[in-house]
Structures are given as C-alpha cells and as structure tokens.
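F.,

This is the one I mentioned.
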C-alpha cells in the first residue's frame, strides 16, 4: 500500500522543506519573467523593462547573489554589449515545427532536421505587425 510513501516530519523539517520550496518557486518565477522580458524586448513591447525588474525581485527573494543577478542583467538581450542575445527567430521556428508536428502526429525528434530549413509562419505573421 501507501504506508511507506508518507512519513511523519517534525515541525522544523516541514518549515525547512517549505522554505526550500518557496526559494525554488521564486527562482522558477524569476526565470519565467526573465525569459518573458527577453521575448517582449525582441517583439518591441514596452513592458519588457517592468518584467525584467520583477524578475530581479524574484531572484532576490530566491536568494540569488548580487553578482549572479548582475550577470543575468548584463546578458539580457537589451544590453547592447551582449554578444549573442536571444534568438527569438529560432524559438518561433521550433514552436511552429512542433505545432505542425503535433497536428500530423510526427514525433518532435523527427522534426529536428526541419528546424533548420523551414521559414516559420508565425515569425512571418509577427514580422507583419
């Protein structure tokens, strides 16, 4: 049965687990907001800065060091000195290919060679805005 699955934990251990979970949630939340700010920046949306600021707040709540946060901000594609930046074109193309594959029941592993060839429809639509 399920007897071995659950065990009693002390109040201190439960508090410790909850604190670690909270830090992981803040880290994930910050990461999602950071990536969103990158996409918003690439799409020319004015909300990218606010999203990046909130991401930094979440990273601070997660206990990230100021050095790590500084590197993250430096590597943001809005920084003119960023070498590579974020390649939204590649992400959009991959999403288009996966979507097309799901429509026709093609496994995504078989789609990888297509990622390099096809001009994505969604990217074309976004370029028209």
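My design for it:
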């Amino acid at each position: 049965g399920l007897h071995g699955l659950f065990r009693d934990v002390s109040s201190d251990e439960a508090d410790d687990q909850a604190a670690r979970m909270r830090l992981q949630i803040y880290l994930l939340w910050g990461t999602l907001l950071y990536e969103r700010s990158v996409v918003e920046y690439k799409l020319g949306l004015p909300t990218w800065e606010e999203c990046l600021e909130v991401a930094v707040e979440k990273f601070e709540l997660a206990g990230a060091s100021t050095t790590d946060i500084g590197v993250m901000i430096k590597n943001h594609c809005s920084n003119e000195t960023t070498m590579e930046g974020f390649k939204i074109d590649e992400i959009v193309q991959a999403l288009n290919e996966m979507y097309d594959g799901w429509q026709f029941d093609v496994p995504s592993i078989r789609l990888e060679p297509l990622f390099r060839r096809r001009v994505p429809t969604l990217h074309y639509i976004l370029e028209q805005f």
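DSSP finds six helices and no strands in the chain.

Talk soon.
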